[in-house]
Amino acid sequence: MALTPSSMPSVLAQLKENTHLQTSLAEHKIRGDQHRNNFEALKVQHNRLQETCQRLEEEAGVARRQKTASDQKTREAMSKLTEERDYATSLVSQLRAQALTPQREEMIRDELTGILSAQYLEKLKSLQEKVDATKMYECARG
After folding, report:
1. pLDDT per position in the chain (142 positions), as tens?
2. 67: helix, strand or coil
3. Residue ranges with strand state E in 17-139
4. Is 46 in contact with 54 (CB distance < 8 Å)?
């Protein structure tokens, strides 16, 4: 195509449009590169955050297992201590029941006095009968 003075304005318009298109294309290319770079940076950050999240979830799982084990040990210790307390309470009750109080001492003394009195009275009665029998035998012999 030959350049003539009449075709000059259209060529200039085409050049201007061509320049505008090239500028637009360059801007779009720069924006595309920026988006690609941002995407790559976000992808790296996302992977790092996923790794951190996974690590934290694992740590939370370990902490939950430790808490469960600790709770179990606490329940077992409480159960053992409760059993020991109950046994000690029972033992104290038994010892209190066996302890000699003034009232119990008096009751035992009365029981023993009653038992011994009955035995001595019976023995006395038996001896009295022997004495009487011996007197009668002596009187009859005599």
Report:
1. 566 767 777 777 787 888 888 999 999 999 999 999 999 999 999 999 999 999 999 999 999 999 999 999 999 999 999 999 999 999 999 988 888 788 888 988 999 898 888 888 899 899 999 888 888 888 887 6
2. helix
3. none
4. no
Return the H-helix or E-strand segment holding 47: helix 8-98
User: What own/partner pairs with CB < 8 Å and gap ≥ 24 does 98-106 have?
Assistant: none
Q: Is 101 left (phi over 0), alpha (psi -120 to 50) or beta?
A: beta
pTM over 0.70: no
Q: Quick one: CA dihedral 97, 100, 101, 107, positive or negative?
A: positive
What end-to-end distance do the CA atoms of the chain give, in Å? 191
Question: What is the distance between the alpha carbons of residues 18 and 105, in angstroms, rounded to a whole number?
Answer: 126
Question: For residue 9, what are its two tokens?
Answer: 């304005």
Gap between the Cα atoms of 19 and 103, Å rounded: 123
Tokens of 95: 């010892």
Q: Which tokens hold the place of 87?
A: 């046994």
What secondary structure letter does DSSP report for 73? Answer: H
